[in-house]
Amino acid sequence: MNRQAATVALVNRLKFKHLALLVALDDARNVHQAAETINVAQPSASRMLSDIEEAFGFRLFERNARGMQPTALGVVTLAYARRALAELTRFAEDLDVKRKGGHGQLTVGAIMGAAPDLLATAVATLKTERPLLNVRVLGETSDQVVQLLHRREVDLALGRLTTPLQHNDFDFEPLARETLMLIVRTRHPLAGTASITLRELMDWPWVAQPVTSPARVLFEEELARAGLATPVNLTECASIFATLQLLEKYDAIAMLPESVVRDHVRGKLLVPLPLEIGKSLPGFGILTRKEEPLAEPAEHFVGLLRRFSQPLTTDHATSGRHVSSSLPIY
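The structure assignment produced for this chain is given below.
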């Protein structure tokens, strides 16, 4: 038999179970103990060893009173068996992780108002299930996340359509509505006011979203219905974090989602004004590119978003209050 034929014959006869037996024999130097390690009967282990040695064409172990000692060629073969079995084990573990989706990357565009409730819950659950999945969250406002989705910088987005024609490019699945609040700091002269009108707020400083955001569009529509002009003393700010910091620094007013300001109100850092606003703001939801299937991690994440949004929408329907479904507005 030539060398190539011998190699083919060895590959055809050698199995990974054989390698497992060789490693077990190398560790135990005893057929009985090695058989128990790989969960086979001792006669089967003995036959397997004979088959292995026949396949290689030489003895791997010398049997003597002290047990089994590897031959010179046996030492080389056992080293290979250990390496090959370790490689297979690592491959199987890595493959199992990949099969469960615990690898790769998921990039989500999200309006930051979603972070305190739905987004945080869904991401936390996803990372608990798939700790090796790299998750990135980008964006601040709906116009930003739509652009991220258009540029293919995110796999999907949480937000709103921002122009009438975007439905041609993106699918939108509504998830929930939310409460908007007019917020000031605790030391603001208007804090604790029993009632107030929008007109009475026009002379105060305001912090508002950019004109391209749905929340700002809504704000301008509210002003137009009331016959009011945009406040002269207005700071545009797309960042919710920066908006909150500004509110705590001076006597400004901002329109923000209840989910974002909830902890600040509980901590008595901010106070809501007694004026209902933003009832016509459309709900937010899942944005995806049309006719483009999602990868499995993204599809799974969408399932989590649907699951965790259900109690919010149900509570809203049964209680008649908006607070339970308060998620993003940007």
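Interim note for the steering committee: Residues 154 and 294 are 11 Å apart (CA to CA). The first strand starts at residue 61 and ends at 64.
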